[in-house]
Amino acid sequence: MSNTPGNPGEAPKLIIDSDWKSQAHAEKERLAAEEAQKAAQQASKGGAGAAGQGELPPADFSSLVGMLVTQALMYLGGMADRRTGQAIFDPEMAQFYIDLVAVLEEKTRGNITAQESSELTQTVHELRQRFVDLTRVVARQAAAQGAAGGIPGAAGIAGAAGIPGVPGVPGVPGVPGGAGSGPEMFRFS
Fold first, then answer.
1. Which end of the chain is flanked by fewer CB atoms within 10 Å, N or C?
2. Alpha-carbon distance 1 to 8, whole Å?
3. Distance of CA 25 to the CA centre of its chain
C-alpha cells in the first residue's frame, strides 16, 4: 500500500527544502549582528547590563532596601566623601538609616517573600553589628587621642561630634583606614 494518490506501488516522495539551512544560518547571523550592535551601544554609553550609566535600576523592593543600606554604610565610613576623599563617619545618620531599614522590616512582615524577609532581617542585624563595632573602635580612638592631649574632651562619640578628623579604623575591613588602607580620616558631622 502506498500513501501517494497516483501510483499505488510507489514509495512516498520526500521533498527536501535545502534552502532552510541557509535561511536558518542567515537568521542566526542577523540575531548575532543585533546583539553585537546592542553591546556596542551599551559600551558607547559606558554602561553594562540593564542598569548601565544613565539608566535607573528597577523600582522594586530590593532597590529600596539597597538604597537605605547604601546610605547607612556611607555614614558608617564605607564610602568616601566625593569632595574631600575622606570617609564619612556620622553615627547619628548611620543609626537613622539603620532604623529606617528596621522599620521597613517590621512594616513588611508577612507581606514579602520568605527569602526577602530573611535577607532583610540579616541585613538589619549586620548593619547594627557594624554600627556597634565601629562606634566602639572610634570611641576608643577618640578617648586615647583625648587622653594623649591630641583631642581635648573627646572621651567618646558624643564628645567627638565636633572633631575635624579621627584616624581611620585599623583592621576593620570595608572601612577606609582599616585592613591595610591608607591614613584616611573620618569626618564627624
1. N
2. 6
3. 40
- pLDDT class of 7 with cuts at 50, 70, 90: low
Q: CA 143 to CA 157: how far, in whole Å?
A: 9
Residue 169's closest CA among 50, 78, 103? 78
Copy the grid coordinates of residue 12: 512516498
List, for residues 117-134, the tens digit of each pLDDT value.
999 999 999 999 999 999
Of residues 94, 108, 100, the one with CA closest to residue 157: 94
Report whether 177 contacts 184 (CB < 8 A): yes
| Rounded distance between C-alpha atoms, residue 165 and residue 156, angstroms | 14
DSSP assignment of 132-158 equals HHHHHHHHHHHHHHHHTTSSTT-SSTG
For residue 39, give the amino acid letter: A
